[in-house]
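User: These chains co-purify. Model them together.
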Amino acid sequence: MADRPGFRRQYDAGLHLLDRQIVGRDGLPVAKVDDLELRVRADGRLAVSALLVGPGALGPRVGGRLGRWTVSIWRRLRPDADPPTGRVDATLVTGTDSAVHVTATTEELGLDGFERWVRRYVVEPIPGSGHDGS
Amino acid sequence: MLLAAPFTAVLLLTACSTPEGDPAAYREEAVSTLQAAHSEVESARITVRLRLDDRTFSRAADTSVTGSETALTSIAGTFSGLQPPPGADAVRDRATQLLNNAQDAVEAARIAVRRDDRQGLRQALSDLAKSSTALHAAAGALS
Amino acid sequence: MKKVFALALGILTAIGGFVDIGDLVTNALVGSRFGLSLAWVVAVGVVGICVFAEMSGRVAAISGRATFDLVRERLGPRLGFANLLASMGVTFLTFIAEIGGVALSLEIATSVNEVLWVPVVAAALWIVLWRVKFEVLENAFGLAGLALVVFAVALWKLGPDWSALWGQARSAAPPPGESWTSYGYYVVALFGAAMTPYEVFFFSSGGVEEKWTAKSLSTMRLNVFVGFPLGGALSLSIAAVTAVVFLPVGVQVNSLAQVPIPVAVALGKVGVAVALLGFFAATFGAACETGLSVGYSVAQFFGWRWGKFVAPRQAARFHAVVLLSTVLAVAVLLTTVDPIAVTEYSVVFSALALPLTYLPILVIANDPDYMGGSVNGRFANALGTVYFVVIVVVSVAAIPLMILTKGGQ
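Assistant: Joint model of the three components:
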């Protein structure tokens, strides 16, 4: 990942990645980087292997009781017993400026579960939801 | 928690000087009651005057006078609920009488405004003016 | 020619859109009790919001990101979340107050009780935010808000003793019958009313949606530096007319229905009609802005798609937050709570939350990572820092003064 164009060789991951907006190929917001998945490289240094997204990732970082509640509510709302945290593989990252750009869209990444749920049960039943204000 | 201590202290202090035990505090309470009542009566008076001169709409005047009426009821109710300390009965009676007159005058004004009754409005104007002067004078005399 | 028209429109809507229910109520109240002795607070507050609106507008134009978007990056998730809760809470409180203000304006015009208007207003508001061409509406409400100029006209017509008014303003001290603690409380309230946090969220989010660039900066600055001060002057004229008509006779403004009275005295029915139109436009416009701002702050914190120009299907969570806020606001108002009381709390809590809102803007506007070469110059930083100290003082004083004066009595 450090050799990709648009990247700096070394990061302060906390400064340049965490809590940044992930922007998809279509220029639309995907999610925030809620946490990072790290791996140890061959030379012993740490590299970011994936961006983690969603309450399962954010909860532990917020910490304390609020963080624990967030994680447990999220786990209960997912159908599987041990739900995986939302994940964006680092290979999809194309570059960073003030946001983190990725080559996929939200739907392709499978990170639009909550949005789809709200769209289906809250927004679509109400007439006029396809009409934009421009 | 450390921040809670000074706040609690202030709260306790402000609660301590209740008008119920202290004649001076009761007087102060009476003065601010009379001033608040005067504010409502004077506001109603100006509104009735504007309505007579056809310088405002009947509905706007109605909302304003009804608002004054409701406020006055609340002011009078709070005051009558206060326990007067011994020796403060004269203050209480005088204030209560003035508050009752004020409520009557504003109520009559509200009725006249809603009916668009010019005769009633003129009578209400005169009563409100008298009540306003009396309230203002009494507040001044007590403070 | 078209450019001049667009420019004028921008400034006019900035002026008309400046006053909201907090400004209306607080200025009318302060004028009737303190005369113009608190005018300096309005002046200082207006300059303050100009400084921070320009910074957040510049951040939106150069970095392409809205304020709340960047708050989380700068403060981290814990502090950012606390900031979100506080800002969202205050903006939501203001939203309730604005809807209440619209309902009160309709009550004055029709004598139908305000509580009955609340669901109607909320429904209309939500339909506007859901369906209507927003740009047209923003302009319509902004221009209609200019009707509040009737207060300046009324002031002139009343023919007041200008030197006496100027004397009150210069004295900067409470008039006889008012204490310094009440005075201090209203300093806090007027700051909160002038420097409302949602203004900055709304302004920067709008800038991002309209895709401002470095070229948009001069227009943005013109709108801010001309529009906002003139809007502040409108607020002051409301205080001035109540100072002239109510202060001498001891009437303390405590309802919105009393605010058109000085206009009626000066200009009769026509004046009242224009004033009511102004109230309606100012409060409805502000209700749209605060409702959207609640949505903006949540969506931008979590990284969701957002936008007033975006169809609800494309930004379901954002629109769901706005819908939920509207429903909750109606529920609160249906408890028959006095909207004026809600307004008074909203301005004081706005003052309390000011440092939380403005510190991230100051920090981000200095960050070359986001701003490139357009970081704050020395003058902007000097002003920003001075103001930050001022708002911290105001914020710290807010709760003690509220307790000591029992909410401003």
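Chain C has a mean pLDDT of 92.
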